[in-house]
Design a protein that fits this description.
By secondary structure, this protein is an alpha+beta fold. It is built from four helices and three strands; from the N terminus they run αββααβα. The chain has helices at residues 13-43, 77-86, 88-99, 116-128; strands spanning 50-58, 64-72, 108-113. Strands 1-2-3 form a three-stranded mixed sheet. The longest helix is centred in the N-terminal third of the chain and has 31 residues, at 13-43. It starts with 12 loop residues before the first helix and ends with a helix.
């Protein structure tokens, strides 16, 4: 049985989920793009260091953003991640100034190292050897 309200039109549950996931994906792409630009600007002065944002996920309520970072050279990954986590509030503020007209609330940022490239290199070494 389906009930209709006078104020709202009925949206099936399945369609509502896909609309929500679509919004999450759009916001995730926006945050990935802007975080990439921020990290590119911050690492410009550090010669030989590159930080790229490989994947961004946003929680369903848009309050938490999980970003996976690929850091080159991987030997300095822990040091750079520690520095990024120390400056998380400053990065969030910078992100907020960039997306303030698209998002009402800037999500809390969580950063993780994406070591998939190191994993691929290790597999290649094992297959060659």
């Amino acid at each position: 049985m389906v009930f209709f309200s006078l104020n709202r039109t009925f949206v099936p549950e399945k369609k509502r989920k896909t609309m929500q996931e679509t919004r999450q994906n759009k916001i995730a792409r926006l945050l990935q793009k802007e975080l990439s630009v921020i990290f590119q600007q911050q690492t410009r002065g550090m010669h030989g260091v590159m930080v790229s944002v490989t994947r961004v996920r946003v929680s369903p309520d848009l309050s938490i953003c999980t970003a996976h970072l690929s850091i080159f050279p991987s030997e300095r990954a822990e040091e750079i991640m520690e520095n990024i986590n120390k400056n998380e509030k400053q990065i969030r503020y910078e992100l907020g100034t960039r997306v303030r007209y698209q998002l009402r609330i800037i999500p809390e940022l969580r950063f993780f190292i994406d070591d998939s490239l190191d994993y691929i290199d290790r597999i290649d070494e094992l297959l060659k050897g």
